[in-house]
Amino acid sequence: MSLLEIDSLVKEFGGLVATDDVSVSIEEDERVSLIGPNGAGKSTLINLITRRLDPTSGDIRFKGESILGLDAHEVVQNGISKSFQTASIFPEMTVEENAQIAAFAAEHGSFRLNFLRRRGAYPEVEARTRDTLDAVGLLGQADTEAQALPYGDKRRLEIGIALASEPDMLLMDEPTAGMSPEETQATVDLIEEVKRELGLTFLLVEHDMEIVFSISDRIIVLNRGQVIAEGTPDEIRGHPDVQEAYLGGVEL
Ligand SMILES: Nc1ncnc2c1ncn2[C@@H]1O[C@H](COP(=O)(O)OP(=O)(O)OP(=O)(O)O)[C@@H](O)[C@H]1O
């Protein structure tokens, strides 16, 4: 059984078919990238998996069970987490408070505003907070305001927040969008570290081909909502349909 199974998935927006009969699977411990030109349907597929969108038809199964009856929170509790959401950090709170909020949500299903005032009453949240900060190397900056962190450490905090729920699968939608080369490198290093140390399964949407080819076990190529190719980086690099659809015939 694959960890994630997407079966004949269709998503229509009015007359537009953004996801057109997509069937793909992701195995445990696999690192998969989803690529394709603008408007290919990559973000739509991620939003279907996180239950931010309802499909028109088809099924998504995680650990063998359909997740279509779950809401977005329940999907996270089932083990699918998404990182690099722009709004995931509270900038004026400390690193520790940000991790506590994520840990509280992971333990109790959702964030309650009065939690931070009564935090001593939740020892399991404290333990998870420490584990989270330790996993991303931020224990030493626990008392720093999130907005004062250097760029690379902000990325670490974001990924820590996504990891607080101890996901089996991490989704990343364009983690390096809008970044400088240095910031991109810091983010790639962090993804490599997570891959090496936590052995997570992940699905990455990324436009930068160098990153995609360096960190993926397998690449899925979407074009106009359909899967046009799937394979290892070497197979995808030489695939004529991919070169045509994705790069207008330019050599990869
Ligand atoms: N909420 C929406 N309502 C209507 N159309 C939408 C909506 N979301 C996406 N679309 C359309 O669905 C298609 C797929 O969009 P999607 O954002 O999934 O593509 P993408 O591959 O992520 O593109 P990009 O690389 O530019 O982010 C596009 O034609 C887009 O305009």
UniProtKB/TrEMBL annotation:
Keyword Flavoprotein applies: no
Domain ABC transporter: 4-249
Pfam families (alphabetical): ABC_tran, BCA_ABC_TP_C
Stretches of the chain forming a coiled coil according to its record: none
Superkingdom field: Archaea
Chain's role: Probable component of a branched-chain amino-acid transport system.
Gene Ontology biological-process annotations: amino acid transport
Entry GO MF terms: ATP binding
SMART domains (UniProt xref): AAA (SM00382)
Organismal lineage: Archaea, Methanobacteriati, Methanobacteriota, Stenosarchaea group, Halobacteria
Protein family per UniProt: Belongs to the ABC transporter superfamily.
Organism: Salinirubrum litoreum
Keywords: Amino-acid transport, ATP-binding, Nucleotide-binding, Transport
Protein name from the UniProt record: Probable branched-chain amino acid transport ATP-binding protein LivG
Record keyword ATP-binding present: yes
